[in-house]
Amino acid sequence: MATKAPRSAKKAGPSAKHAGLTDGQFALISRALAAPRRYEILAEIGRRDCATPCTCIAQSQPISAATLSHHMKELANAGLIHVERQGKFANLTLQRDVLRAYLARLASL
Asked: In angstroms, rounded to a whole number, what is the distance separating the alpha carbons of residues 89 and 101?
């Protein structure tokens, strides 16, 4: 039976920029990356060195705007991306330090 992450861990945004991850943050990232579509979105954001406009992701993914919004929210809640809003537009940045911390924890198993 899967256990839910504590509520406080769901707000693992840019403040999660530290070497270690809590168990809740680790679980959120694992769940976020388990969805193939979210992995594709994250990989596309990661290919760029600068912020990626959400419209670029929307054009490359064969999904509705609502579904893309859901996937972005899951990635942001896990702390994997930072969403910078400018009016109705959003720019996405991969949080490489959070991803590195996740990979380091996986490597320590």
From this structure: 29
